[in-house]
Amino acid sequence: MRNCSWLINILLLLSGVLSLQSNAKDPLEGLTITAMQEMRSSNQITYQALTQHYIDRIKKLDDHYKSVITLAPDAIKQAKEKDLIFAKGNATGMLFGVPVLIKDNIDVKGLPTTAGAMALSKNVAKTDASIVAKLRKEGAIILGKTNLSEWANFKSMQSSSGYSKIGGQTKNAFHAQYSPCGSSSGSAVAVAVDFALVAIGTETDGSILCPASMNGLVGFKPSRHKISQHGIVPLAKSQDTAGPMTRNVEDAALVYSAITDDISPLINASVDYSSLSIGLIGHMQQFYIEHLTALVEVLDQFAVKGTSIHNHLPFAQVDALINAEMQILLFEFQRDVNVYLKERGPANVKSLNQLIEFNRAQGDNKQDLLESAAKFQDQEKFNLAKLVIQEFALSQLKKLKEKHNIDVFVAPSTGEGWKIDPINGDKYTGGSSWLAAMIGAPAITVPLQVIDGIPSGLTFFALPGEDLKVLTIAREFEKMQRKN
């Protein structure tokens, strides 16, 4: 250990108001969806009582964590309605009565969609985003909106993950001085400190996987085409998607089913270990060398069951891919945010350039990514960047999969944590989200170990459309972890 942050963290966890387990005997804390529904079925709780429990915790503790921006004023009304329906025996829907928090770049009818930005502080949604409509259809209670890195962490290279002008600085659930990672910071922290059963985040590259990993959760980024982007503030539409952040894989799969057309993806799903093949791309674990023991132990557990493990798989042109991705993000952000602001921005912010001027007038000059995006309108460079992603990311991964008959790839989700630095921004220590992000593939992080007091997960990813396979194998890994 390089410092005693783990000890400080333990003391915080045991210290009353800031404790993640302020009342260890409270049966409403740390619930999974299945456990909650069992309690409701036996009348140990009501949906109203559970919803009130979360609201009370948020009001009591979130001045510290700053994970929630807005509470839905009708949350208790929603819960009462669910209890009445339940009492009549008419409860239907995969998420019936489940309180859910929504990242504040996703529309919830009647609530502001701010993306954490002052320019959008009065951007009240007239309708629900498609994903929110699906959640409601499946019986979820929309509890409120969560904080995020402003503009989904595409504002400045010196940004601090989890900070927004609207919501302030979200703090890591395990250590208040450390970054929660971003941009779905509030969603991750809110579930980790027991402000909701489930939260929805969004990801362009790492914005679900990183905060879920560093706050000890399961975070699932589905294949990009699985979820409608309607009603979500855009960053880069070729990579943007939404996904669940939960306490276990089963809950993530259930929420995934609710927000897509893939129904009950883990029912009757099983793994034949003797025919399973797992691949590790060498470049994806370089940042993790000093922490590899836990990963090796996991792979040994799979190998003992007959799984084929392919280590140190080569992957070329990584630098070219990272550069191409940035060009795509810059081009698509300026293109799509200009459209969004034209339709939804206030009278004085109808374009990206006007947004930049608005921020300057507010004394906010830390917006180099916004400025770079406003200038990047080179269609030829954009088209070339897309070809680079197609050839060196998607095609290369397909070739590895075919050559070695690989079912899923694995990689460490994140490295060690870093302290919040509001001046210089994140001291990012490495991650593996980039490849799945570039090609719109499914990826899930599951808790693996704790590094100096901050959790770190293991990511499973595959080719676009292989969501069920990723969820199924992640569930098997989670079972292994529980046995240990």
Structure description:
There is one protein chain. 40% of the residues lie in helices and 14% in strands. The radius of gyration is 21 Å and the shape is globular. The chain has helices at 5-13, 33-41, 47-65, 75-87, 130-137, 150-153, 185-192, 209-214, 249-259, 292-304, 318-344, 352-361, 368-375, 379-404, 434-439, 467-483, and strands spanning 68-71, 99-103, 141-146, 163-164, 168-169, 198-203, 218-221, 241-246, 277-281, 308-313, 408-412, 443-451, 454-461. α9 runs antiparallel to α16, α11 (318-344) packs across α13 and α11 crosses α14 (379-404). The chain has a domain at 5-259: Amidase signature (AS) domain (Amidase signature (AS) enzymes, Alpha-Beta Complex). The longest helix has 27 residues, at 318-344. Mean pLDDT is 93; it is low at 1-24. The strands form two sheets. Strands 1-3-2-6-8-7-12-13-11-9-10 form an eleven-stranded mixed β-sheet, with helices on both faces. By secondary structure, it is an alpha/beta fold.
